[in-house]
C-alpha cells in the first residue's frame, strides 16, 4: 500500500532553493497527502511576506557579510538562519490541516529529548530555563482554500550574536507600514543538551510524524542536482531568487536622509513603492544645487539601492568637474544611508 505520508529532506543550504521547493511541493501535492519537509539555510535572514527588509534588518551589514535575504510567502516576522538552525514544514490538505497537530508533534519530539518545551501564546516554542522562558522556535503559516502548511525554525546552535546583529536595524528615519517582528529572548538547544545535532533532531521529528499518523515513508533527498519532477519549479525559483520579490515586495515607505556637509546641508526625501524610488525630493542650502537636483531626478524610477546611487553619480560626474569631490562624498554617504 502506498503511504499517505511524504518525507522530504533538502541537502541544499540555499534559502531561495529551499523556499521554492517548499512552495512547489505545497502547490502540487495531492490534498490527501501529509508532507514533512526538513531543511536548513546558511547565512540568511528570512522575512515575512509583508515586511520591509530595510526596516526589519540591518541590510547594510548583511550585504557586507554576504548574508542572503529571503522573503517567504507566509506571514510573521524576521528570523536569522545558519546551519545551527533547523527548519521544518508540515503540509496537509483541508479539513485535516491543523497547526495544533504539527505544534504538538514538535513539542512531543523535543520532549522526547528531555527538553521542557511548550507552545507560547504566540507562534513560538519556548524552553523553560532557570532564567525564565526563552524562545527556541518561531513559526509561520500559509493556507489556501484546500490546503495549509506550518513551517518553523529550531535554534540548535545558531550564532546568536549574528542573529542580534542582522535583526537589529540601523536607526533610520524610515516611515513604513508592514508587519513588525517581535523580538524575543532566544536560546540554543545545544546549551541545554550538548549532544544535540541536526540529524538527531530530524530523526525525532520524523519518528513523531510517523507515529502520529501510524504510517511510514522513505525519505526523499532533494538538492539542485537531484530535483524530483516539480512542476513549475524554475519559475518559482526565479521569483524567489529575485531582488523584486525579496526586497522590492516591501510595502510602500518613505525615508528621509539628511547630512551637514562643509559645503551645505542636504535632505533627501524618498518615497519608495515596490522597491522603486517613486519620488525623490531634495532640500539644500548648497550654493550649487543644480547637480544635487539632477541627482535627485536621476534616482527617480530606479531601485532603492546602492547601485542606483553610484550609477546616477557616475552619470553626473563628467558634467560637474568642479563639484566632483562633493559628488563623490555624497555618493558614499547616500549609498550608506539607503543600503
Ligand atoms: N532562527 C530563529 N528561531 C527562533 N527565533 C528567532 C530566530 N531568529 C530570530 N529569532 C527571534 O525571533 C524574533 C522574531 O519573531 P517573530 O515572531 O516576529 O517572527 C518569527 O518568529 C517568524 C518565524 C518564521 C519561521 C519560518 C520557517 C521557515 S523559513 S522562516 C527575532 O526578533 C528574534 O528575537
Describe the structure.
This protein has eleven helices and 15 strands. With 339 residues, it is of the alpha+beta class. Strand 8 (124-129) and strand 9 form a beta hairpin. Helix 1 (15-28) packs across helix 7 (233-241) and helix 10 (306-316) packs antiparallel against helix 11. The structure holds the ligand Nc1ncnc2c1ncn2[C@@H]1O[C@H](COP(=O)(O)OC(=O)CCCC[C@@H]2CCSS2)[C@@H](O)[C@H]1O. The ligand Nc1ncnc2c1ncn2[C@@H]1O[C@H](COP(=O)(O)OC(=O)CCCC[C@@H]2CCSS2)[C@@H](O)[C@H]1O is lined by residues 46, 72, 76-77, 79-81, 85, 87, 123, 135, 137-140, 151-153, 155, 158, 163, 167, 181-184, 186. Pathway: Protein modification; protein lipoylation via exogenous pathway; protein N(6)-(lipoyl)lysine from lipoate: step 2/2; Protein modification; protein lipoylation via exogenous pathway; protein N(6)-(lipoyl)lysine from lipoate: step 1/2.
Amino acid at each position: 500500500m502506498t503511504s499517505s505520508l511524504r518525507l522530504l529532506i533538502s541537502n541544499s543550504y540555499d534559502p531561495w532553493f529551499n523556499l521554492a521547493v517548499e512552495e512547489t511541493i505545497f502547490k502540487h501535492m495531492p490534498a490527501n497527502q501529509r508532507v514533512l519537509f526538513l531543511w536548513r539555510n546558511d547565512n540568511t535572514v528570512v522575512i515575512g511576506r509583508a515586511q520591509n527588509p530595510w526596516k526589519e534588518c540591518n541590510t547594510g551589514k548583511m550585504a557586507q557579510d554576504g548574508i542572503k535575504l529571503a522573503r517567504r510567502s507566509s506571514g510573521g516576522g524576521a528570523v536569522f538562519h545558519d546551519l545551527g538552525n533547523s527548519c521544518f514544514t508540515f503540509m496537509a490538505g483541508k479539513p485535516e490541516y491543523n497547526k495544533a497537530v504539527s505544534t504538538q508533534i514538535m513539542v512531543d519530539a523535543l520532549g522526547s529529548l528531555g527538553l521542557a518545551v511548550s507552545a507560547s501564546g504566540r507562534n513560538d516554542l519556548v524552553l523553560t530555563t532557570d532564567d525564565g522562558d526563552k524562545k527556541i522556535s518561531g513559526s509561520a503559516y500559509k493556507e489556501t482554500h484546500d490546503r495549509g502548511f506550518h513551517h518553523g525554525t529550531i535554534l540548535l546552535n545558531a550564532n546568536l550574536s549574528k542573529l542580534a546583529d542582522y535583526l537589529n536595524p540601523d536607526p533610520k528615519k524610515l516611515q513604513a507600514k508592514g508587519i513588525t517582528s517581535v523580538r524575543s529572548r532566544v536560546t540554543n538547544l545545544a546549551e541545554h543538551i550538548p549532544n544535540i545535532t541536526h540529524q538527531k533532531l530530524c530523526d525525532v521529528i520524523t519518528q513523531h510524524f510517523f507515529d502520529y499518523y501510524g504510517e511510514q515513508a522513505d525519505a526523499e533527498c532533494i538538492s539542485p542536482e537531484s530535483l524530483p519532477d516539480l512542476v513549475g519549479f524554475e519559475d518559482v525559483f526565479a521569483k524567489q531568487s529575485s531582488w523584486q520579490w525579496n526586497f522590492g515586495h516591501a510595502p510602500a515607505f518613505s525615508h528621509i536622509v539628511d547630512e551637514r556637509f562643509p559645503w551645505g546641508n542636504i535632505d533627501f526625501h524618498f518615497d519608495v513603492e515596490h522597491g522603486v524610488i517613486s519620488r525623490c525630493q531634495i532640500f539644500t542650502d548648497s550654493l550649487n544645487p543644480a547637480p544635487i537636483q539632477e541627482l535627485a531626478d536621476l534616482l527617480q524610477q530606479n531601485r532603492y539601492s546602492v547601485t542606483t546611487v553610484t550609477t546616477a553619480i557616475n552619470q553626473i560626474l563628467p558634467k560637474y568637474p568642479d563639484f566632483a569631490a562633493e559628488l563623490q562624498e555624497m555618493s558614499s554617504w547616500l549609498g550608506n544611508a539607503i543600503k
